[in-house]
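Changelog note: in this version the structure field was regenerated for every chain. One regenerated record is shown below for reference.
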Amino acid sequence: MTQLFALPPLANSSLNDERLLFTVLTQLILIIATARLFAVVFRCLRQPIVVGEIAAGLVLGPSCFGHFFPEASQRIFDPAAADVFGVLSQLGLILLLFIVGLEFEFSHLKSHSRAAIAVSLSGIVVPFALGAVLALGLWQAVSTPALGERASFAGFLLFLGIAMSITAIPVLGRLLLELNITKTTIGTVTMTAAAVNDAVGWILLAAISSIVEARYEVGLTVRMVAATLAFFAVVLWLVRPLLKRYIRRAIEAGNGDLTMNSLAVVYGLVFLCALATNLIGIFAVFGAFTLGTVLSDEPEFRNIMTRHLRNFLTVIFLPIFFTYTGLQTDIGALQSNTQWLMFGAVLACAIAGKLAGCGLAAYATGFHLREALCIGTLMNTRGLMELIVINVGRQLGVLPPDVYCMLVLMALFTTAMTTPLLLLLMRGTELEPQIRQSGFLERRSAEPL
């Protein structure tokens, strides 16, 4: 009797697993197909693949497909699969940032470290200040948050400021790879500035979230900074020398390649570093990025890992992240002329804060005007890291629906404008031959990175 009554739960559990698998596979097929289609279309428009993937998510999501066909959208994009795709997208980001870190070129920083620091600081201070000023004008005009009570003005101001300050490292990293400018001085300075910018940004985000939730402790920020510095020190001075010796021996034993056991060790360390920074609270991708950077002077290892990972990341993991995040966004909240004027102000402040602020910092530290503007343009890339930040604000009840929508549109506009503006500014800079060599200007299809 006991065995008889034990069977139905097992069957139900198996059935639920199969239903979830069916939902995940259906969404995965649709996401990959739509992402590749939009990637081809946007590549024809000389936009990077990532912009097409973001657009694909918006079209599949509540802004378009979900709006016109709500019942079909609900059946296909069953919320039960949201957690699965959330985890898959984060895994894709972790592996991408590891590859971006391996492509990092530190030789330029010997003569441009001052520029990277100046650009990073300007990329935080100037946009944050403009966002704070903008909050003064928006506060009385915006609607009540959809979730919870209306937050205090201080919370609204702080979140608007941090939303203006974010640079999207995953999007920026993918763009640098796609345009073949990762190893240029401009690319290196920009990526370094963006990494520092976002590390500080995530610490500020945690502190601001604590303020909004009335749990703020000065010790929290201090502990996060100390833990971050300790992590960097351990990776640089302990993990790096041991792993470099292991990698060289493994490549030699594998006749120029890594065996499955060696790859398992590498991937395990990548995820372990991601776990460490996740526990610190500054986002898991920074751990993978840090491990990649400390191994960037191992060209043979870099080539092996790139060969193993790049195509799989491009076709599977990254479209999941960019497309599925777009699925969670509804951009139909702006209806009145006043709201669109407010959005124009948000967009203008966002562009001025990054393009002008970072560009002037680069110019002041020795870059020519066009080079400085290129750096400012790249730092203006926000992408979906911005969406992560503003979703936190929305969940805390800080950002009302109309401001949330404005920030989503701002993230997409600033990401979409990066490549066209960069192609206009690249002439006569070190970027021009690298971009032409990448084949980006000639290709009319969405090739892998």
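Spot check on this record: Residues 2-80 form one domain. DSSP finds 18 helices and no strands in the chain.
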